[in-house]
Design a protein that fits this description.
9 helices; four-stranded antiparallel β-sheet; two-stranded antiparallel sheet; alpha+beta; 433 residues
Length: 433
């Protein structure tokens, strides 16, 4: 993505923000905004552009170069040929006066460079690929972070609703006990215990509300907004790439090996370094060029003042204290190191896919368990409350039932949001986020 494309993307983002539906900002919109506004993504695009400029410069080495020069020289005395040494009298002026003007132009076309230019171009091509792949990988990292913050806001908001529900339920329970205490149906310690539980629930509600504000600030920061800007999110999360449908871990791992930009980028970096080694090694080998020139020389001795010329030039660094060889050797070893890092990264990617796949399966199983626990906890609370009102149960049983209901709802919400994040984490591990 070049600077022009990035500018178009920013325009699209502005349009989306203008027509955003009241239902809330979607995760797809958040991804689009982050892609346009994140400075690290923009920096990655500049690195791609820089690599493309290096490639253009490397390709330009194949074309002729034209160098023009001009000079004006003033002598303290007029230079002249002196023939007295040959037994001839007199002197013949070299120039028309004590000053001399000269102009020169040279065109050089490389004919044979022992692979220096071709390997330099190949290295530049691989470097462009490296930067593009790194940019793609970084963009996926940014999208995963945005998804994490997005889900974090949804999770915190859900936790706040659970805390508010507990406060509301305990408030009604305290009111019931207060009425029962007024008629002498229950002891005062029941009322006190319920009031203490309500106070603790209100404290957790305050903490949950503060956590909502914090997660919204983190979400805004990821999109380049002011931390206190209002956040209204659509809780419908987008689906995943169809390549994540297969449940086979082996298929997912093979997909990751084919799609992970980091793997391709590391391999391209090794290829680029190897090509630079070949180009550096070629500097100590013969270089053949075609040279053409034009020279204009102001003089009074030669039969004309301008000349055209054409010829061949050979350059061969016969001895350079092994500088080219040692530099090429260093680059070759760096290339070998990158290839080994590539093989090691394959095992890291395999572990990431395995871990994300296990986590996704775990969260799916947790959701099924948590769904049933919510129904059981609600029914348990209803039964315990009825027994307490009828004088058959204790206040402790009611408070315990309230706690179980809160835990079951929290477990269900956490399982749902853990599953959502696990899916995006698996998509990132496979390289299709």
């Amino acid at each position: 993505m070049g600077k022009h494309s990035l500018s178009m993307l920013q325009s699209i983002v502005c349009l989306l923000l203008t027509v955003r539906p009241a239902a809330g900002e979607t995760l797809q919109e958040a991804w689009l905004i982050a892609t346009a506004e994140d400075l690290t993504i923009e920096a990655a695009e500049f690195r791609v552009a820089a690599a493309e400029s290096d490639l253009a410069a490397a390709r330009g080495s194949r074309w002729p170069t034209l160098v023009a020069s001009a000079s004006a020289t003033q002598f303290n005395e007029t230079p002249a040929f002196d023939f007295s040494g040959a037994g001839l009298p007199g002197q013949l002026p070299l120039f028309g006066g004590s000053s001399q003007l000269m102009a020169d132009a040279r065109v050089t076309l490389p004919l044979f460079t022992s692979g220096m230019i071709s390997n330099s171009v190949q290295a530049a091509k691989s470097s462009v690929q490296v930067q593009r792949l790194r940019s793609q990988a970084h963009a996926q990292d940014v999208r995963l972070k945005v998804a994490e913050n997005f889900i974090g806001v949804l999770r915190a908001s859900s936790a706040l609703r659970v805390a508010e529900s507990l406060v509301s339920s305990l408030t009604r329970h305290v009111a019931d006990i207060n009425d029962m205490f007024a008629t002498g149906a229950v002891a005062k310690n029941d009322l006190l215990a319920a009031q203490v539980s309500l106070a603790a629930a209100k404290q957790r509600q305050l903490q949950a509300r503060n956590n909502v504000d914090l997660t919204k600030a983190m979400y805004n920061k990821g999109l380049g907004r002011r931390l206190a800007d209002p956040v209204n999110l659509d809780d419908k999360l987008p689906g995943l790439d169809s390549r994540l449908v297969p449940e086979s871990l082996q298929v997912l791992t093979e997909t990751a090996f084919s799609n992970r930009s980091e793997l391709d980028g590391l391999r391209s970096a090794a290829e680029a370094t190897g090509a630079r080694a070949q180009s550096t090694r070629a500097k100590s080998r013969p270089q053949l060029s075609l040279v053409g020139g034009y020279t204009a020389l102001e003089n009074s001795f030669l039969n004309r003042q301008d000349f055209w010329s054409i010829g061949f030039g050979v350059q061969w660094a016969v001895f350079d204290a092994n500088r080219s060889r040692d530099k090429a050797s260093a680059l070759s070893m760096q290339s070998s190191a990158l290839y080994r890092e590539y093989r090691d990264l394959q095992s890291v990617v395999e572990l990431q896919v395995h871990s994300a796949w296990l986590q996704m399966n775990e969260t799916v199983a947790r959701i099924k368990l948590a769904e049933g626990a919510i129904e059981q906890a609600n029914e348990n609370l209803r039964v315990v409350r009825d027994r307490y009102r009828n004088g058959e149960g204790t206040n402790t049983e009611v408070l315990d039932a309230e706690g179980l209901r809160t835990v079951s709802r929290s477990n269900y919400d956490n399982a749902r949001y853990d599953a959502a994040y696990a899916r995006y984490r698996l998509a990132r591990a496979v390289g299709v986020l």
